[in-house]
Amino acid sequence: MSFADYYFARYKALPPFFENHSKGAVSIIVTIPCLDDAFVFQTLDSLESAHSIDTKIEVIVHVNSGEQTPPDTIERNRKIFNGLQQKINFYKNFRLLPILTEGIARKKAGVGFARKTAMDEAVRRFSSIDKPDGLIVGLDADTLVAQTYFQEIVKAMENLSAQCFTFQFQHNYDTTVYPENVIRACRLYEIYLRYYRLKLKSFDFPFAIHTIGSCFAIRAEAYIKLGGMSPRQGGEDFYFLQKAVKMHPVYEVNVPIVFPSPRISDRVPFGTGPSVHHIVEKGKFEVYHPELFDILSDFYRLFPTFLHEDVEEQIPKLVMDYIGADIFRDKLSECKAYSATSNAFVKRMYHHFDAFFIVKFLNSFNQSASYSPVDILEAGKALLRNDGIRDINDLYEQIFIRDQKINQIPKGN
Question: Exposure pattern of 171-194 as b/e (b: 16+ CB <10 Å)?
């Protein structure tokens, strides 16, 4: 009996795409969803140029389209798939495994379903060689990787307690490929991604990780315990990784080894593509008011005291009004009733008031007069100044360095 049998019996998945099984030495399978993106060949060339490692690698490229995909897009998809098939025996660094799906129902079609299908196939392949600790890597079709990509992944895998992995990134700011206004817009968006994580880290929020679909990996058995990738049409990476970080130890590779595209896209409702488009149109990027994070900080710092002390009156009014007093007391009672230790109690509280709670809270006040959005450049500089950094010459670079060293930041900073 395979470790994955119960997963495929319980959760819906497409039938197997390959009759041939992985060979025993395979321990890494990279999965790439692809919709009308010929850049995928550059992505594969990038993987081929990465330093080789002892273990064998497979790369599954899932070329996909839905029932409402325009005919010209389907035709380009087929050309991409045919091109991939012609290159099956071309790459020396890995074994290429292209798959094609068409006509996926409107409610399912999208990057989440495409990513899930490729990752499910990776589970099957690891299952065929009984390798539950095999690593399924998420990558995108418009993304380049560092030459040390596989070396850093193997190094991370040596941490046997870690089940999920995130990779540090920097967008691909090649001025010969992308317009200057797009690069500037994406730099602002990338500053925001790091700013947001640093703000959460400032009050020791335990789920403060980057949740980018091209910058993560998970062991096969951990993947199936999570019920697989979410088939959402956007934000599937955020939902999956926030679910993962609650259940499994996460190892963060803090060296930038992934370089996503900064280009504009409208294929998903949020993320890099639409954010860059918005910034290009507006000429600036406004983000959550910093005081909202301070208010959240005052709430989360109370968690250790909730178990034995009545400190409800210390909860910021804005937070309590948002949650509702009765709902909060119900959650607090549940956490107390099912926690044998203080650590278990705090952990259970974080599960109730998780990253989804934070996003919803921030969004609910984002347009209020008292907490109107602020420019990301102002917010980013204020964050660095609060950390004692006065000489801010290059906000992008300095906030990147701060984010890269996030796990070295003393608690409370």
Answer: bbbeeeebeeebbbbbbbbbbbbb
Q: How far apart are CA 171 and CA 262, in angstroms?
A: 6
Residue with tokens 């317009």: 179
Report CA-CA distances (Å) from 1 to 5, 124, 355: 7, 13, 37
The bridge status of strand 26-34 relative to strand 135-138 is: parallel
Residue 21 lies in a domain: no
| Pair of tokens at residue 339 | 């926690």
Same domain, 191 and 316: no
Q: Which residues of the chain have pLDDT under 70?
A: 266-269, 407-413
CA distance 30 to 53: 14
pTM: 0.94
**Looking at 265, 285, 305, which one is the last position of a domain?**
285
> What are the angstrom distances between the C-alpha of 122 and each of 31, 163, 306, 375?
8, 16, 43, 42
Domain co-membership, 143 together with 56: yes
| Rounded CA separation 398/393 (Å) | 8
Residue-wise pLDDT tens digits, 310-320: 899 999 999 99
Say if residue 356 is in the same domain as residue 277. Answer: no
Query: Cα dist. 232→3, 12, 155, 228, 265 in Å?
Result: 25, 14, 31, 12, 17
Which residues, 6+ apart, have CB-to-CB distance to 109 below 8 Å?
A: 64, 65, 66, 67, 68, 69, 233
Check if the beta carbon of residue 114 is closer than 8 Å to that of residue 64: yes
